[in-house]
Amino acid sequence: MQWLDALCGQTDRHAENYLIDMSGGTPTVMGIDNDFSFGKNRKDPTTPKSSALGLPPIIDRATFTKLTSMDWNALAVSLADELDQEEIAAAKDRFDAVQRKLDELDQAGMVVDSWDDTVDVNGEAKTVTEVLMAPRNFETYFQREAEYQKFVKASETNRPPITE
Q1: Among 42, 2, 36, which Cα is nearest to 139's?
Q2: pLDDT tens, residue order, the chain (164 aa)
Q3: What does the domain layout of the chain look like in residue ranges?
Q4: Residue 3 and residue 97: Cα distance in Å, rounded?
Q5: Phi, psi of 11 (to 5 degrees)
Q6: Short-list 137, 144, 102, CA closest to 110
Q7: What φ, ψ does residue 21 adopt, rounded to 5°?
Q8: DSSP string, 18-58
Q9: Of 35, 122, 31, 90, whose CA–CA distance to 98 is shortest?
Q10: CA torsion 5→74→77→111, rounded to 10°?
Q11: What is the pTM assigned to this prediction?
């Protein structure tokens, strides 16, 4: 979802703006409250802004392939009836920035076939989870969600009992 939010210019994705459905075995994530998407002011998705975290330092091959196979001209046609020219120009800037980041990740060996893979980070083998959780000011939704869940659990554990 972080890659999609980068393309769409979503700046309001926080812990209350997505749902995780675990009922089917494989978790399904769905973004809600998307009214801050596709504006004209968010042109560079690589830097944090508001609740937008920038772009992750690693990507799975399936997502990478889908994103790199996107055709800007076809996308621009589909946006033309919904967005004005400034919003489309900002979407193009975001699209180009995402494509550059994907190329950078590919060159750095940060496109993984499986979330169980390890990658080389400065000569040291790291798991995907270690890369996603590395301290970088909550660069990934994965890290932010993990920290949020720790906070929620700690809050529930330390909550005083309700008395009448």
Answers
A1: 2
A2: 889 888 988 888 777 787 777 788 777 778 888 888 888 888 888 877 766 677 888 999 999 999 999 999 999 999 999 999 999 999 999 999 999 999 999 999 999 999 899 999 989 999 988 888 776 655 777 777 777 777 777 777 766 656 65
A3: 2-38+56-157
A4: 11
A5: -115, 5
A6: 102
A7: -100, 115
A8: EEEE-TTSS-EEEE---TTSS-SS---TTS-BTTB----S-
A9: 90
A10: 10
A11: 0.79
Burial class (CB in 10 A: 0-12, 13-18, 19+), 78: exposed
Round to whole Å and give the CA distance between 59 and 3. 9
> What separation in angstroms does the CA of 148 have from each of 22, 79, 141?
18, 34, 10
Other CB atoms within 10 Å distance of the CB of residue 58: 24
Contact residues for 7 (Cβ-Cβ < 8 A; gap 6+) = 45, 67, 91, 94, 95, 98
Q: How far apart are CA 131 and CA 119, in angstroms?
A: 8
Sign of CA dihedral 131, 135, 139, 142: positive
Residue 53's nearest CA partner among 16, 99, 13, 94 is 13
Q: Report the distance separating Cα 121 and Cα 127, nearest Å.
A: 10
Tokens representing 110 are 């940060």
